[in-house]
């Protein structure tokens, strides 16, 4: 039987609750396919700050690197919000992404028929939305040098960052995006601000060059401001979107909110080699932490992505996705996706319902 | 009687059509208040490229600077899309903003009761939306140095830009934003990415300091990715939003699309002193140019902003805004905002309807 080592990073807020549910679902779905998992739980984010004073301990990173895949819950909370930069939970997350080299962040935004009413969009606009944002995750303005504080010629204080992309960074994310589009509906929209930014001009040039290797994919380009509009006007026009780190941060969150159910949305972050990082796109929701109210389905769907993209275990991935749909069909809902006529349940109970359908 | 000099920059695509309507409305509304206008039309954008080979001729900028206010139609079109950077219509627009020093861009997004069905949002989410994005317009990554192309240590090609803000730039836009919020519902939300970017950390610090001068204004802070979500989840939570140049580009376009009627949305760009620049937020729409199909109401509402913010002629501004509402009440609609039961008319005819209500 196959064995995989999984690093669990429960993190902060609702992180531990949702990771605990997802771990059980993963174990069960694996066992049905003859797959065994060994789990190692490590501190990260605010939890690590409280324990050892840094948001990403060296040991956490090295254990994660040696494992086959990493499942992260969520990080952050009011408690650490005013920490200086090096001591912010978010900094630990950026260090983890960089340390793992996971440059490709896949963020699906899918409106499930069962949840179409959760969207603030009109039904006819929301139903059938099924898009994937491929976000560059280890470059651009998040990591560009120089950055910091200083003075300008007039002696005034300045804060500055550098948006920078090298050809190899663009090429590798473009390749992932074209491959992703190929497995979907064959349409790729590259989003940039090439009418203003040099970094975007290089982006557009390299993505266009890469297209010659993918004659079966229909490539279009869109400015980021227009993309922000088009996502609201007609989200169904999109299949796969590829964009840089900061535009991807904004647009993937916008796209996720179109579904109205961000408690349902998983993500995968992948590198050239080495383990992938899998996490729900929602935050740590400190206001409902520890109250058994969190929706664990985004994390459950993240382990499905872990199986598919991290371990190439497509069957187990499908089993989990189908179990989540079945659970929704049975009417189970956590508070965030509740509507009248459905069964309002907590984090654990919806997790048990999924287990029964696995 | 009062006299003002107005520079008209019709620009490209539908620009000339919509500016022509708005000019007539301005003239009429002014004459009723004893105001006379002298207009001077100058080339700009693609039109200037075709005429004299640059997107912003020196003479256009100097005439604009000496006038009391500037009305711009729209710029750009397929024809110039592949021009090199210095010969893009967009570059002319950036030069105009910088040349005039109009650092504060006010972009209202209002859902009019008459047009609530145009929104792709559910009626209960869209109705009553009335927000103002105050976007910094002459700084940040749009203008930051250094920028360009080069090589990294490994000899690979790179494209790079600098996001940079100095304290005085943040302070002056914050002041405009607090003053704007004071004239509205007293709520200001500052949007940044201070959990990652140093430029945003300085932004947040200075906006927070400025708040001590505005104890009557309720200031909140939001990360840009969350703002992109919240605009869709519950746009009515926002009154005034202040943000940097690139985030403002994205969020103001997103906010405008919430209304479903970007053919209705005006904007004002203001400096410390000197004339303001007023323009519809929509583009040049080359596909419908010259066909009398364009919606001129965004430009008509831009001359209302010109009167209010550029010339302090509040009465004339109100007259025009009321005439636009009256025209909608009478059922006149251009194609972009048409719905069954209404009167479908062209650019000129809806302009004449507005004139009758002035
Ligand atoms: C927490 C923050 C640093 C992070 C980001 O901006 O990448 C988050 O918003 C995300 O999208 O995963
Ligand atoms: C045309 C372009 C340079 C411009 C911008 O990005 O500022 C436009 O999108 C706008 O928002 O006015």
UniProtKB/TrEMBL annotation, chains A, B:
InterPro entries the UniProt entry points to: IsoCit/isopropylmalate_DH_CS, IsoPropMal-DH-like_dom, Isopropylmalate_DH
EC number annotated for this UniProt entry: 1.1.1.85
Binding partners and assembly: Homodimer.
Catalytic activity: (2R,3S)-3-isopropylmalate + NAD(+) = 4-methyl-2-oxopentanoate + CO2 + NADH
Biological role: Catalyzes the oxidation of 3-carboxy-2-hydroxy-4-methylpentanoate (3-isopropylmalate) to 3-carboxy-4-methyl-2-oxopentanoate. The product decarboxylates to 4-methyl-2 oxopentanoate.
Keyword Coiled coil: no
Cofactor: Mg(2+); Mn(2+)
Species assigned in the record: Thalictrum thalictroides (Rue-anemone)
Pathway(s) served: Amino-acid biosynthesis; L-leucine biosynthesis; L-leucine from 3-methyl-2-oxobutanoate: step 3/4
Protein name from the UniProt record: 3-isopropylmalate dehydrogenase
Record's cofactor remark: Binds 1 Mg(2+) or Mn(2+) ion per subunit.
Homology family: Belongs to the isocitrate and isopropylmalate dehydrogenases family.
One Gene Ontology biological process: L-leucine biosynthetic process
Domain Isopropylmalate dehydrogenase-like stretches: 5-354
GO MF assignments: 3-isopropylmalate dehydrogenase activity; magnesium ion binding; NAD binding
Gene3D superfamilies linked to this entry: Isopropylmalate Dehydrogenase
Keyword flag Protein biosynthesis: no
PROSITE patterns recorded: IDH_IMDH
Coiled coil (UniProt feature): none
Keywords attached to this entry: Amino-acid biosynthesis, Branched-chain amino acid biosynthesis, Leucine biosynthesis, Magnesium, Manganese, Metal-binding, NAD, Oxidoreductase
């Amino acid at each position: 039987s196959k064995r995989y080592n999984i690093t669990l990073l429960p993190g902060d807020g609702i992180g531990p609750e949702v990771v605990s549910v997802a771990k059980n679902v993963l174990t069960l779905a694996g066992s049905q396919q003859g797959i065994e998992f060994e789990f190692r739980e490590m501190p990260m984010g605010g939890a690590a700050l409280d324990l050892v004073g840094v948001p990403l301990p060296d040991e956490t990173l090295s254990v994660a690197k040696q494992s086959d895949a990493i499942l992260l819950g969520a990080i952050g909370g009011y408690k650490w919000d005013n920490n200086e930069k090096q001591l912010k939970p978010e900094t630990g997350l950026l260090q983890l992404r960089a340390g793992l080299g996971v440059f490709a962040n896949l963020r699906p935004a899918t409106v499930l028929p069962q949840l179409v009413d959760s969207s603030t969009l009109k039904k006819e606009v929301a139903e059938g939305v099924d898009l994937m944002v491929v976000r560059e995750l280890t470059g651009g303005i998040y990591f560009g040098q120089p950055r910091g504080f200083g003075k300008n010629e007039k002696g005034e204080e300045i804060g500055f960052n550098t948006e920078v992309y090298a050809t190899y960074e663009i090429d590798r994310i473009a390749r992932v995006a074209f491959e992703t589009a190929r497995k979907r509906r064959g349409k790729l929209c590259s989003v940039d601000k090439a009418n203003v930014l040099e970094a975007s001009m290089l982006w557009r040039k390299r993505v266009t060059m890469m297209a010659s290797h993918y004659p079966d994919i229909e490539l279009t380009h869109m400015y980021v401001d227009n993309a922000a509009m088009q996502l609201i006007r007609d989200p169904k026009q999109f299949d796969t979107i590829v964009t840089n780190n900061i535009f991807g941060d904004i647009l993937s969150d916008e796209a996720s909110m179109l579904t109205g159910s961000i408690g349902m949305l998983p993500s995968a972050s992948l590198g050239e080699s080495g383990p992938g990082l899998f996490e729900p796109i929602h935050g740590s929701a400190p206001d409902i932490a520890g109250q058994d109210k969190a929706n664990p389905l985004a994390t459950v769907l993240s382990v499905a992505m872990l199986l598919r993209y991290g371990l190439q275990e497509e069957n187990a991935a499908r089993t989990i996705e189908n179990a989540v749909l079945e659970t929704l069909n049975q009417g189970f809902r956590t508070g965030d996706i509740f509507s009248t006529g459905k069964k309002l349940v907590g984090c654990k109970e919806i997790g048990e319902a999924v287990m029964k359908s696995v």
